[in-house]
Design a protein that fits this description.
The chain is 38% helix and 16% strand. By secondary structure, the chain is an alpha/beta fold. α1 packs across α2.
């Protein structure tokens, strides 16, 4: 690892969302700052607030949240911890999921529901517009263009600065781009399962490459998962030992080197784990190490 600096997340580099909204490439996913099953308040609210404030000490300038986390509690917690917000902080939130109970999620892309969700996010985050607003999940019961079209309308009204999509395919990205500029795609992607929702590995690689070509931020959720790839003696384990790091840190470092438009958002409820994640920004894999991991994960 390289030497730490005062704001170590800066070592991950910077990406300009939409071309003019710079963020640290290593961000923070706030979902885990809720109760069990992503439901209710965190068990220790003071600790959650302290963690959110620690993200700023570490130089993290991208925080991802959603109406569905809590539900609605996560956004309020962020505001309580960080409002008034630092000038360089970008908060990305999402709408389009209903939460009937713990560990229960179902898409709701109805235009009227998305508008209610957006208005609620504005109140809870105490802002007059959302920097990056993402459709959380396409609703199979609602025409995709209707959902995206409503978000586009709210952008025209000045309530949203930039639009993103989550859990989508290449076809859906292309369809959405005919309606409104898309600046981020947030999909499941990691070394253990290097495929996005509804796509195989090759299609997932094509989506990431497409985002890179178009300057779209690709936000992998659950980015640290390594599973059996990190078993003792494995290639990943050996590389981690070489860097005096944990396999999850190597997974984050690999993602940061995979593409200059990848923006990992590892989440945690522990300050020590947060600090460990940020250390990943300072790990530099050799070309051979990077390719060994790519072959191992077929990513």
């Amino acid at each position: 690892m390289e030497n730490n600096n005062e704001r170590p997340a800066a070592a991950s580099g910077t990406f300009a969302i939409g071309g003019n909204l710079p963020v640290s490439r290593l961000g923070f996913g706030a979902m885990r700052l809720t109760g069990a099953g992503v439901w209710g308040a965190p068990a220790d609210k003071d600790a959650a607030i302290a963690l959110l404030r620690r993200t700023q000490d570490l130089g993290i300038t991208l925080i991802d949240t959603a109406e569905a986390y809590g539900p609605r509690i996560n956004e309020s917690l962020i505001a309580e911890a960080l409002y008034p917000y630092p000038k360089d902080l970008v908060i990305a939130t999402k709408g389009g999921l209903q939460r009937p109970g713990p560990n229960q999620f179902y898409p709701d892309g109805r235009p009227q529901q998305l508008r209610l969700a957006l208005e609620g996010s504005l109140r809870r985050l105490r802002v007059d517009h959302i920097d990056v607003y993402q459709l959380h999940y396409p609703d199979p019961n609602v025409p995709f263009e209707d959902s995206v079209g409503e978000i586009a309308k709210m952008r025209e009204e000045g309530k949203i600065r930039f639009v993103g999509l989550s859990n989508i395919t290449i076809d859906q990205l292309v369809r959405a781009q005919k309606i409104v500029p898309i600046v981020t795609v947030q999909n499941h992607y990691n070394l253990e399962k290097p495929q996005c929702v509804g796509m195989d590995v090759q299609q997932s690689v094509e989506l990431i490459n497409l985002c890179e070509r178009q300057g779209i931020g690709f936000i992998p959720w659950h980015p640290q998962s390594t599973g059996e790839l990190a078993r003792p003696g494995s290639v990943l384990d050996q590389i981690a030992r070489r860097h005096a790091a944990r396999p999850g840190q190597i997974a984050l470092a690999w993602l940061l080197q995979r593409s200059p438009t990848i923006l990992p958002i590892p989440g945690t409820s522990s300050i020590s784990h947060l600090e460990e994640n940020v250390e990943s920004a300072q790990i530099r894999l050799s070309h051979d190490e990077f390719e060994e991991i790519r072959r191992m994960a077929q990513a």
